[in-house]
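Lab notebook, page 48
Experiment: co-folding of the full assembly
Goal: obtain a model of how the components sit together before planning crosslinking
Operator: M.T.
Materials (sequences as entered):
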Amino acid sequence: MLPVDEQIQIIAKGAAEIIDPEELKKKLLVSKDKGKPLIVKLGLDPTAPDLHLGHAVVLRKIRQIQELGHRAVIILGDFTAMIGDPSGRSKTRKPLTHGETLENAATYKDQLFRILMPERTEIRFNSQWLSKMDLASLLELAGKTTVARILERDDFKSRLDSNLTIGLHELFYPLMQAYDSVAIRADIEIGGTDQRFNILMGRDIQKHYGLESQVALFMPILEGTDGVEKMSKSLGNSIGIDEEPNTMFEKVMTIPDNLIIRYFQLCTDLHPDEVDQYRERLDRGENPRDIKACLAHEIVRLYHGGDAADSAMDHFNTVFRDRQYPRDMMSLDTAPFTDDQGNTDLVRVLVQAGFTSSSSEARRLILQDGVRLNSERVDRFRIPVRDGDVIQAGKKHFVRLNKA
RNA sequence: GGGAGGAUUCCCGAGUGGCUAAAGGGGGCAGACUGUAAAUCUGUUGUCGGACGACUACGGUGGUUCGAAUCCACCUCCUCCCA
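Observation: model returned without errors.
Model output:
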C-alpha cells in the first residue's frame, strides 16, 4: 500500500468535499497498519442502465481507490427503488416494479465492470436487509432522526413550500440509504454532491448504531458537452461509456476549453501531478485543441483501449483538423438512384446513407450549402457522378460512391 | 367531499372559427468566423414532391359548421384552491 499521504492525494483529486479529512486519514492509517482494506460504499438506483461519463466520475474514483488496495461495495437499491430517490427531483417518482428493478440491475452490472475491478467489488441488493426489517426495527431507525431534520433537505423543503406532493414513504428514503451503511459497515461513502444529505445521514445513523462513522466523499457533478448543464442523457449532452471510439473522441473535443482540466480530473485516472502538467501547458499558451486531444485520447483509451484511441485520434485529426477525407468511409452503390440520363439523385443518396432522416431534410441540407461532391459545393438535387466520387454532408459524414 | 384551470409541433410556450404547418424562446441541423470547441452572426427546423401543390398534425372519441387547434358533449390524464 502507498503511504497514507499519497493515498489521500489520489482520493482527493477532483473531489468536491471530504467530511472529515482527519477521519479519513485515521481510517487509512489503521487500514495500512492492520493490512485491512477500507470499504467504500456506493449506492446506485437501478433505473439508469446507460452509464455516461457523469456517472463514471464516482465510479472512476472508486476504481482509483481500489487500485490503492481497498474494496468497494456497490449497493443496488432494489428496495429503495420502490420509493424512488427524491434527490433533485421535483416530483414523486413512479415506483418501479420488482421485475423492472432486477432487469435494470443486470444491465447495470455489465457496465459497472467496465470501470471497477471485479475482484475488489461486491454487489449487493439492499432488499436483502431492508425487506426483512420489521415494524419495530423501522421505528427504532426512524427514532434516530427527526421530522424537522428530514424536512430540512432542500428538495423536500422546496416541494413542501410549493405545495407539491410528498409521499410519506419518501421521507424514509434517506434513512434507508443510511441504514445500508450500517448494514455493510461502510468506511467511506462516495456520491455526487447531490447526495450530500443522504450520505451525511449515514454518518449520523451509524453513530447511533454504535459504529464508527463513514467518511463522506463528495464528487462534483460533471457538466455535459454543452459546458453548462449537468451531464444527462435526456439533455442530450452526455458521452456514454459505450459509445463508439470515434464518436466519443469527437464529443470530448466539443467540450468548452475551460472544462479541459476539470475533465482530466473527473474523467481520467491520471495522477494529480500529470494533470498539473497539462494545466501548465495550457497556461503557457499551448493550443487548447491539442491538450483537449490528449484528454479525448485518454478517455477513449480508458473505455476502448489504446489502439482504438489512436485510431480515433487519427480519424479526428484527418477529418476535422486537416479537413481531409477519413481513411475509411462507407460506400454506396449509386445505380438505384441514377436515371437514364446518368444523373444521380443526391437526395435519395443522403437518405440512404443515413445522413438525413427524411428527403425534405436532405433537400434543405443541399440548399443550405451543406453538401459537397469531391469538395465542391453541390447546388442541384440531381447531378452526374463518377465511380469513386465522395459525397460529404456537413462536416462529418462521408460516403464514397460506386457505380457497380 | 366541493370548486377552478390545463393538455399545442423535439422541449417550453403563444394562439381562442377562415389570413395557422401554427408567434416567440430553447434545442437540433447547416453556413460564416476560428488554432479544436465555446461564444457570435445568418439561414433552417412536419412529410411527399426540384418550384406552384398535396397530405398529415394541436390529449382521445363523437358532434356543430361551407370551414375547427379554436365552439359543444363525453372520456382520459395533470395541476391548483377550499374542506
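Interpretation: Residues 95 and 349 of chain A are 46 Å apart (CA to CA).
Next step: discuss with group before ordering constructs.
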